[in-house]
Amino acid sequence: MNTKPVLLLFAALIIVLTATAAYIDMKRTPAIGGKQLADSTQGFAVVELFTSEGCSSCPPADALMERIEKENKNKQIYILAFHVDYWDHQGWKDPFSNPAYTARQQRYAEWLRLGSLYTPQVVINGATEYVGSDQQLILRAIAAGLSKPGMGQLSLNTQVQGSKLQVGYQAPGQDKKEELVLAVVRKNGASDVEAGENTGRHLSHVQIVQQLQVVPAGNHEVTFTLPSDFRQYQWEVIGFLQHKGNGLITRAARSPL
Q1: What are the pLDDT digits (tens) for 160-174?
Q2: Whole-angstrom Cα distance, residue 87 to residue 147?
Q3: In the list 9, 93, 155, 160, which could disulfide-bond 88, CB 3.0-4.6 Å?
Q4: 3-state DSSP assignment of residue 31
Q5: Structure pTM?
Q6: Class of domain 40-256 as given by CATH
Q7: Beta-sheet pairing, 45-51 with 77-83
Q8: Bridge partners, residue 247, by sequence
């Protein structure tokens, strides 16, 4: 009996099944800039972008964050855009900048043993940092975060009362070295830049951090004061547990307003 045709048929069947499975998996997993992220119901990725409207290298990083946010709505990806203030003396004051965000970036420089601050910079899960426009490395790090289960527990509850936002949280820390970082986030914003390196450009942003508090882990409530242009559907709260000693983020959650 000649088994060669049978073997060839079997090999062809394997190829077809493999290709079909790959196609189904691609349809199931949202793409980012032509890339794919691994799917995980337990993993997460906190993506902190340090940026500025005064920096001509930052718009590509802002655009990358916008694509990631748009194309992965159902993923546990938490994007936070921190507009630092050290570019503000270069001709254009970023309306979203805050010295507290520069201080946060400085803290990462200490945790990650970096020699200086720069923009655009992305830090993922408090563990690794990249040039904010380096799509390949950033997507790889996000995929790695999504593939690993988080540690600890975290839940958030939000309530708007007039000009006040109350955030209740349950965050039993794994040890006393963990703290909870709470960010009030504006989902989008834009500026027409009139000076500095980006003169004449219309810059758009997503996931802009407008307020930030670092509080002890546990079961507590925090109050934020909302701005006069607050529109509830345009905002959310993101919180995450972070180790004080090394910056590692162990769990994250969000709550729409």
Answers
A1: 999 999 999 998 765
A2: 36
A3: 93
A4: strand
A5: 0.84
A6: mainly beta
A7: parallel
A8: none
